[in-house]
């Protein structure tokens, strides 16, 4: 058995005629957090979609923790993976409880959904307080907690977080960061795409920088300087720390 939950080996991906990922190799260690940094259009969300199984690569391989090659049809979500997407994408006219239950829809788990939901409420007490409130009436931070909770309802082995603090105030972003650290402390494998490079590198053990669909830097997160990454790889005038 490998020490990595998942490995991308020379993966290429495209939308239409445009190449979005070009020969990307990454590995995601079991029980650790891996950060993927890069400017808008660098290929970060595409990487998450390939990991999730909702986008099929046009080249390269994905290997699971046993070294088995994974294949999927576009639109088929991998059973051990769950994503909290950019923009949260909650159903605003449904209650918080109903949105959470969608995360466990059609899953064959031994544990009842109510038990899993109780764990979400323990992790996010504010979500418990809003359980019967329409999701569309929540604050941005509360919606983000529900989106992460919905992903956790799948009881994944790999959790994908796409820009979890985007658009949040520094205080609320800090709260979400603390929640992610708590989830990581439970031993879950996390792949984190985040606009705040400093926060992402604090949470992660491994990090990759994507530029125009290619990995341009990688290594232990603790050895990376967020300011150097921003100045070297990002267009800071237009990206504003993305």
What are the low-pLDDT stretches, counting only 5+ consecutive residues below 50?
A: 236-242
Give the oligomeric state.
single chain
User: Any guess at the CATH architecture of the domain at 1-80 and 158-163 and 191-242?
Assistant: 3-Layer(aba) Sandwich
Name of the CATH first level of the domain at 1-80 and 158-163 and 191-242: Alpha Beta
Tell me the strand order in the biggest sheet.
6-7-8-3-9-10
Order of helices and strands: EEEHEEEHHHHEHEHEEHH
Please name the CATH topology of the domain at 1-80 and 158-163 and 191-242: Rossmann fold
Rg from Cα: 17 Å
CATH superfamily of the domain at 1-80 and 158-163 and 191-242: P-loop containing nucleotide triphosphate hydrolases
In short:
The chain has 242 residues and is α/β, with parallel strands linked by helices.
Features of the shown structure:
six-stranded mixed beta sheet; disordered C terminus; Rossmann fold; alpha/beta; 242 residues; 9 helices; four-stranded antiparallel beta sheet; 10 strands; 27% strand; globular
Question: If you had to describe this structure to a student in words, what would you say it looks like?
Answer:
The chain has 242 residues and is an alpha/beta fold. It has a domain at 1-80 and 158-163 and 191-242: P-loop containing nucleotide triphosphate hydrolases (Rossmann fold, 3-Layer(aba) Sandwich). It has helices at 44-52, 96-102, 113-123, 125-129, 140-152, 170-184, 197-203, 226-233, 236-239, and strands spanning 4-15, 18-29, 33-38, 59-64, 69-70, 81-84, 158-162, 189-193, 206-211, 214-220. Strand 4 (59-64) and strand 5 (69-70) form a beta hairpin.
